[in-house]
Amino acid sequence: MIHFDNVSKRYPGGHTGLSHVNLRIDAEEMVFLTGHSGAGKSTLLKLIGLLERSSAGQVHVNGRNLTRLKNRQIPYHRREVGMIFQDHRLLFDRTVFDNVALPLVVSGLGHKEIGRRVRAALDKVGLLHKERAAPVTLSGGEQQRVGIARAVVSKPPLVLADEPTGNLDPELSQEIMNLFSDFNRVGVTLLIASHDIALIRGMNKRILTLSNGALVADSKTETVDVT
Amino acid sequence: MSRKPRIIFPVHIRLQRHAQVALSSLGRLSRNALSSLMTCAVIGIALALPVGLHVMLHNLQQVSGSWESGASISVFLKQKVSEEQAASLAEKLRKHQRIQEVQLITRSDALQEFQRQSGFADALQALDYNPLPNLLFIQPKTDFTTAEKAQQLVQELRLLPEADIVQLDLQWVRRLQAITIIAQRAVVVLTALLSMAVLLIVGNTIRLEIQNRRTEIEITKLIGATNAFIRRPFLYTGFWYGLFGGLIAWSLVALAISLLSGPVATLAQLYQSSFDLSNLDATTALILLGGSSLLGLLGSWMAVGRHLSAIQPS
């Protein structure tokens, strides 16, 4: 599903985001990405969602070579990658329903189909009763679940999450993680960046560790201890 | 791994999407009714100026057209021709097949009138003779009133031994027409300049709108919106600005014409004319509305092209 081949990212000004990362994530895997802040977690996710392009090396996602993807093809790539952010990135002038519907509207679905799918996604995250609510009236955990519903509503094969539990208390964080596990069980590939070591260890999934832009540990190939 | 084929949606769904975007951008304008109205009013006033001038010129041309058909000829007779000779010449010319009517204004009549009206009475009395010539004021028959045929009659009258100066009173109509042509050119220039102003107004308004909706644009780009999708609401907004601006221009011109038509009718009556100020005709109105919508669309296209690509999600 995701394949990094000797990928580096340098930002203008000389800051190194990633250096020589080799990585392979198979379809239907659920993988955590950890490391101190500034280690390159966000950069790695951004390269997959094509928010940034790599400076060197090849990035393949879902059979596509992103290095060769033209700018006008980026939207079609992003439709196959659901993205979840720490700050939710919701549109506050629209209802919960309209926020979740956005990816479907963008890809041009008819409104009946949109209604059906949005309600299914909201039901899955347990917010069906809030579809007419404005995002500001929701709690942080609820807002994040709206963000998750939006990321999965178009049934993308791959979902990326950048610190999805960053602002949530442990109980809510665990709920969110369980939700991700549910998606993974139905075949969605997930890559979740988090520095909450305790939380992700409890999930018992593959953990990748980044440090200063380099991939320093992979729980699939070795036993890691990064504490 | 399989690659999803790109789905081409049927026409009715795409039309439905366009209608939705058109209506939602209209709704957005109505939510900020006052500022939207002000933008439309600026566009309307800018467009009302050339359109109003065009309508006035159109009216002027109609008036001068009817004046041309009423061309008359003045024949100033030589000084040595006496009033009796002038009267018999007038009588002779009345039988001419191309002449409808001849009015003789004798030199003594003319002098009296001149003394009465010019204020040079004292100066004229100091002269020991009357410097004014006899004048025959000739109205050609209606078949011969076109500029060309009247000109033929003028040539004929010039051959009369008594005639000194023969003048077709079409000169000032011609001058008016020449001025009208200059004014028309000016309207074209004005239209071009003010159209550019409309482009800039719409472009700037859309630029501000893009800045206000920056976050929204970033998020929709993140979710996989194409540039066309993001562009669309702004293009519709520009279109609506143009259309409503055009409608405002139309009503401003109509209002101005209806305010002028009363006094103009009074003036026309004083000239024994039944001239009526005509309003914007359907073709011009359609051109106005189509043109203003197009300007709105173009203006927003320019702004969108420049500013949207600068916004990238991070």
How is this fold's topology laid out?
The complex is a heterodimer of chains A (227) and B (314).
Chain A: E1 2-10, E2 16-25, E3 30-34, H1 41-48, E4 56-61, E5 64-65, H2 74-78, E6 81-84, H3 96-106, H4 111-124, H5 140-152, E7 158-162, H6 170-185, E8 189-193, H7 197-203, E9 206-211, E10 214-218
Parallel strand pairs in A: 3-8, 3-9, 6-7, 7-8
Antiparallel strand pairs in A: 1-2, 1-4, 4-5, 9-10
Helix pairs in contact in A: 3-4, 3-5, 4-5
Chain B: H1 11-31, H2 33-68, E1 73-77, H3 83-94, E2 99-105, H4 107-118, H5 121-126, E3 135-140, H6 147-158, E4 163-168, H7 171-212, H8 214-222, H9 227-270, H10 282-307
Antiparallel strand pairs in B: 1-3, 1-4, 2-3
Helix pairs in contact in B: 1-9, 2-7, 2-9, 7-9, 7-10, 9-10
Give an overview in words.
The complex is a heterodimer of chains A (227) and B (314). Helices cover 33% and strands 25% of the residues of chain A. Chain A is built from 7 helices and 10 strands. The longest helix of chain A has 16 residues, at 170-185. Chain B is α+β, with helices and mostly antiparallel strands and 314 residues long. In chain B, 70% of the residues lie in helices and 8% in strands. Chain B has 10 helices and 4 strands; from the N terminus they run H-H-E-H-E-H-H-E-H-E-H-H-H-H. In chain B, helix 9 (227-270) packs antiparallel against helix 10 (282-307). In chain B, strands 2-3-1-4 form a 4-stranded antiparallel β-sheet. The two termini of chain B are 28 Å apart. The interface between A and B is medium-sized, with 29 and 27 residues.
Question: Which short descriptors sum up this protein?
Answer:
heterodimer; A: 227 residues; alpha/beta; six-stranded mixed sheet; four-stranded antiparallel sheet; 7 helices; globular; B: 314 residues; alpha+beta; 4 strands; 70% helix; rod-shaped
**Biggest sheet record of chain B:** 4 strands, antiparallel
Largest sheet: number of strands, sense, barrel closure of chain A: 6 strands, mixed
Low-confidence stretches of chain A: none
The ordered string of helix (H) and strand (E) elements of chain A is: EEEHEEHEHHHEHEHEE
Level of helix content of chain A? 25-40%
**Helix content, binned percent of chain B:** over 70%
Main sheet strand line-up of chain A:
6-7-8-3-9-10
How would the global form of chain A be characterised?
Answer: globular
Strand fraction band of chain B?
Answer: 5-15%
**Cα-to-Cα separation, first versus last residue of chain A:** 29 Å
Number of helices of chain B: 10
Distance between the termini of chain B: 28 Å
Helix/strand-derived category of chain B reads alpha+beta
